[in-house]
Write a structure and sequence with these properties.
33% of the residues lie in helices and 33% in strands. It is an alpha+beta fold. It starts with a helix and ends with a strand.
Length: 167
């Protein structure tokens, strides 16, 4: 009796098992890469949309421009009360820790703050463009402030103020 066919059969099963395992690993690796690419694509699309809004606002005669002057940050806040839109264009936003985010605050005449969103500038970019939106009329507010907050944001400002723009 020969045991050779059994060995070949065992070797074939082992090779098939290793091939399947290798394919699963390659598929998992490809899936992770695809998710990273989709995430990067979404961030780039967001940047393009913000830049397009800023460009469109610059061509409007209704837009007011306010300088942004922080300790390290400079830029411009574009405000169009007629369209109820604002866009922040800021340079040199400080890098944030992974557990932090920037939070935009709309400032009411009585000093109360209303959150207008969170953002994280793209790492390595010299400037950031961020659209500011509100369900209320922007002309009801007297300014915009930016603070550093924990990831996920806060109900009220708790972190370091980066800058404030009064309008």
């Amino acid at each position: 009796r020969s045991t050779r066919p059994q060995r070949n059969f065992s070797f074939s099963r082992l090779a098939l098992g290793l091939s399947i395992a290798a394919l699963l690993v390659l598929n998992l690796f490809s899936f992770i890469q695809l998710q990273q690419i989709q995430s990067r694509q979404a961030r780039l699309l967001d940047q393009v949309e913000n830049a397009q809004v800023a460009l469109a606002m610059l061509s409007s005669p209704n837009v007011q421009m306010f300088p942004v002057n922080g300790e390290k940050v400079s830029g411009t806040l574009l405000l169009d009360n007629a369209q109820n839109k604002a866009v922040l264009i800021a340079q040199n936003m400080p890098e944030l820790a992974s557990n932090q985010t920037y939070q935009i605050w709309l400032i009411q005449p009585d000093g109360k703050r209303t959150s207008a969103g969170l953002f994280r500038p793209e790492s390595g970019q010299s400037y950031t463009t961020q659209t500011i939106s509100s369900s209320q009329i922007l002309s009801d507010y007297v300014g915009v402030g930016i603070t550093v907050e924990p990831a996920g944001g806060s109900d009220q400002p708790t972190g370091e103020r980066v800058f404030r723009v009064d309008f």
